Amino acid sequence: MSFESLEQYHRWIWNCQSCSTCQKGPQNVFSPAGPTPDRICPSYDKYPRLAYSAQGRILAARALLEGKLEVTDRFVESLYECTLCGSCGPERMGRSSCSVHRKQVPIFRALRTDLVSMGKAPTEPYKKVAATVEKSGNRFGTARAKRTQWIPEGMDLPRKAEALYFPGCVATFKSAEIAQSTAKLLRQGGLEFAILGEEEQCCGNPLSASGQQQAFEPLAKHNVALIQAAGAKKVMTSCACCYNVLKFRYPEVIGDLDFEVLHTTEVLAGWIDEGKLKPRKSIPGTLTYQDPCNLTRVNSPEISILEEPRKVIRSIPGVAFVEMEGSGMFTQCCGRNPYELPELSLNTGTNRIKDAQAAGADTVVTSCSFCDWSLGRAAKGADAEIKVLDITTLLSQALDL
Amino acid sequence: MGKEIKKELEGIVGSENVTDEEFELIAYSRDWSYDGPLQPEVVVTPASTEEVSAIMKLANRTKTPVCVRGGGTTTTGMSLPREGGIVLDLNRMNRIEEIDEDAMAVTMQAGITVYKMIKFIEKRGWKIPLKPKFGSGVSMAGWASFNGVGAGGSVYGRVTDMLLGLEVVLPTGEIVTTGSAAFKGAKPFCRYQGTGPDLTGLFLNTFGTMGVMTGMTVRVYRKPEAEGFIGYGFDTAEDAQEGIRLLTEANISYGINLYDDEMCKITGLPPSAPWVVHMFAEGWKEEVDFRVKKGREILERAGIGEEKPKAIPFWYGVEGMSSRLDPPMRTACVGGFHPIGITAAVFHAYNRVGKKYNLRRGMVWWVINNYANIFPIYVYNEETELNVMIQAAHDLRAEWSDLGCTPDFPGPNPDITDRIVPEYLAFYKRMKQTLDPNHIMHRGMSPKVAY
Question: Which candidate in A20, A251, A290, B147 could, as Cys together with B205 as Cys, close a disulfide (CB 3.0–4.6 Å)?
Answer without folding.
Answer: B147
